[in-house]
Amino acid sequence: MSKAQYVSVHGGHSGQFCNHASDSLEEIVLAYVQKGFSWVGITEHAPGISHELMYADQQAEGLTPELLYDQFGDYITECLRLKKKYRDQLTLYVAIEIETYSGYQSFVPHLVESFRPEYLVGSVHFVNDLNFDYSPEMYERTAASVGGIEQLYEHYFDAQFEMIESINPAVIGHFDLVRIFDHDYKGRLEKPAIRRKIIRNLELIKKRGTILDFNLRALYKGATEPYISQSILEMAKEMEIAVVPGDDSHSVKSVGNYIEQGIDILEKMQFDLSWQKPQLIAPDQPRP
């Protein structure tokens, strides 16, 4: 067993603040404590900017952007309470997982100003303003809207590049999530046009000193390898990009899922296991 510390740079979704998660945030934090984690970023999803750009489960529940915005304030308050309560047992970071739909380039700075998160996880769940990772049907619909699966990959990595350039998040969440419902993703990632965009994005990530989330939820959901895929992970290693485990937990049961397996993969590839921490946003500024 590796001696590397247990950490999660992308974790802590809870049923208290996320419709597709379960259990309270405190129950999830306690699970991290009990499993011996050293530090964890609690990275709840940003509130939806409009009804059309909310997740399908939120729409089905009849939620509104206004309600989600207020609920997000409750999340920040609760996360700060837990950060203080468990500070002698676990270092918690209060973070936001952002989206890349229309309007995010002004909405995300507004969220940062309003809620003062400690860092941002930059994720892409929307392409062409359509959520692609909720179901195979939604994946196919999104791909069709841009001309096919290969075009979906290209649009995905273009959206990711734009987000890194404009928002500069500390962490890139599940770098290749676009492969989620594609059984032929290994070959797809080698297509010259797609590979060029991957390399371009990795070069910008290296330049910015950004962390790549080694997202283990893929294994929890039955995939054969985490996000990041092996071919991309090899490029990240060659470029000396920091890669840090993220359990992307959505329940007590999934806290720390496959952490040992993830550490073992990174150790065998000789990644730095001292785990770079996210660059925090203006930590000396008072909260509103």
Would you write up a description of this structure?
The protein has about 290 residues and is α/β, with parallel strands linked by helices. The chain has a single domain, classed as TIM Barrel, CATH 3.20.20. Helices cover about 40% and strands about 15% of the residues. It has eleven helices and nine strands. The strands form two sheets. Strands 1-2-3-4-7-8-9 form a seven-stranded parallel sheet. A hairpin with a 2-residue loop joins strand 5 (about 125) and strand 6. The mean pLDDT is about 95.
The structural class is alpha/beta
Q: How would you sum up the major sheet?
A: 7 strands, parallel
Q: What is the second-level CATH architecture?
A: Alpha-Beta Barrel
Beta-sheet strand percentage?
Answer: 5-15%
Helix content: 40-55%
The coarse silhouette is: globular
Q: How large is the radius of gyration?
A: 18 Å
Give the beta-strand count: 9
* CA(first)-CA(last) distance: 44 Å
Number of helices: 11
- Specify the CATH class: Alpha Beta
Fourth CATH level, the homologous superfamily: Metal-dependent hydrolases
Mean pLDDT: 94
Low-confidence stretches: none
Order of helices and strands: EHEHHEHEEEHHEHHEHHEH
Q: Domains counted in the coordinates: how many?
A: 1
Could you tell me the CATH topology label. TIM Barrel
